Every structure is written in C-alpha cells, then in structure tokens.
Amino acid sequence: MSAPTPRTALLVGAAGGILKEVARELAEEGHTLVLFDRDATAVHRLAEELGRLTKVEAVVGDITDIPAAEAQLTDIVDRFAPSILVNGVGGDTRVIGYADLTTDHFDQTFLENVVSSWIAVKVCGPRMAADGYGRIVNFASAGGRTYSHFNNAAYVAAKAAVIGMTKQMAYELAGTGVVANVVAHGPIATDRVAGAFERRTEESKKDVMSRLPMGRYGTVAEAVGSVLHLCSESAGYSTGSVIDINGGLYM
C-alpha cells in the first residue's frame, strides 16, 4: 500500500481524549496539523509533542464563541487550506431526566455539538470544494442514533441533529470531491468518561457494566480507527454515512 499523500488536517477540540490520539496518528502519517482547542496548556503541550514528527500549528480558541471562531477559522483556511476537518467538540456525562432539563441545557448542548460543527464546515467546506478534495468527520454518539443510558434527552437530541445535519451537508457537497461523515461512539474510556464512571456508586457501576454487551468501555485506541479511515483518501466514496463504534450497544 502506498503512503498517504501529505495533507493538512484541522482538528477542532484537538486536546480531547479521542482527537488527541487521532492527531498523533495523523502526525505519524506526515500530515500537517492545525490543532484548535480552548485549553491553551493542553493544546500547546500536544503541539510540542507532535512537532517532532510534523509541522504543527496550535490555535487557542473557543469554537462555541461563534463570531470569534468564524474569524479564527477563516484565518486558518486562508493560511493552511486544510483538506481534512475533524469536529470533536461536545460531550456530556450528566444523567438528567427529561422533566428536570431546562431550555439552558438544550441551548448549551446544541451550541457545543451542532452549531460548533456547522461553523467549522461552513468556513472550511467551500475551500475544500474549490480545491476538489476534502474529508469532513463530525462526532455524534451512539445515543444520537437511538437513546442513552448515560446522558440526557438534550444531549441525545443534539447528537441526532449532528447526524441529520451531516447527511444534508454530504448531499450538498456530493460530487465536489468533499465527503462528510459521522462517527457515533458508544462509551469510550476517555479521561472525562472514566472519571465520571469512577464517581458513580459501586451499585451504579455494576448497573452500567450490565448494560454493555462487551462488559467494558471501549478504549481510546479502539475509537480512533474509524476516524482515521474517514480522514483517508480511501474514504472518497463514503459520504453521509454513520459509523457506530459501540461494542454492541443498541444493536
């Protein structure tokens, strides 16, 4: 198999558990990386680490501050013309019953998951289409495909919206050389998710594990393969698809 063509990848939420590992793998393949994250310490640490392997630019910004993020993303597109975009922002480990949710929960989770992904595609997509090549990967959730034992109705609704939005974007971009797809992870043992699990009672931990067909959470290493495939040249005929990585949950 020939080596992949070196490209530029923009990772939004780059310092998060899954995207951090995706960044490492893309760096190993020789791609230039633009790492966008609001955690300045974490993103600069990652950039320093990966700078030994490839060219890396760290950008500190909050993707949920839409006007500021749009300006930053426009500058990134002008300077780097990324042809790979991975939106990894969003997530929620709060179990809240539907009757206890407020409109603030919906506003915040739709901003974090849906609007933030939209603004990145809005800015990057036209340049990709003009260049005739692009790989867009948005993060949904297994819960967004059905329901969730581990979150709440606002989060599930937002992740379902990410799936629908991505399918529409894929339709509009079809034929331009740009494909847009979704990865829907089940429970993956990132630091955040593992921390939330450890805060549960022993009885609650047993209940959670009893609901997982594989009897365990997925590892970060197991979560990245689908993302890397959708970032690759070989994914050129995959668009509007949803790849489930859920250990048999919600079969």
From TrEMBL:
Coiled coil: none
Domain of life: Bacteria
One Pfam family matching this protein: adh_short_C2
InterPro entries, per database record: NAD(P)-bd_dom_sf, Sc_DH/Rdtase_CS, SDR, SDR_fam
Protein family according to the UniProt entry: Belongs to the short-chain dehydrogenases/reductases (SDR) family.
Name listed for the protein in its UniProt record: SDR family oxidoreductase
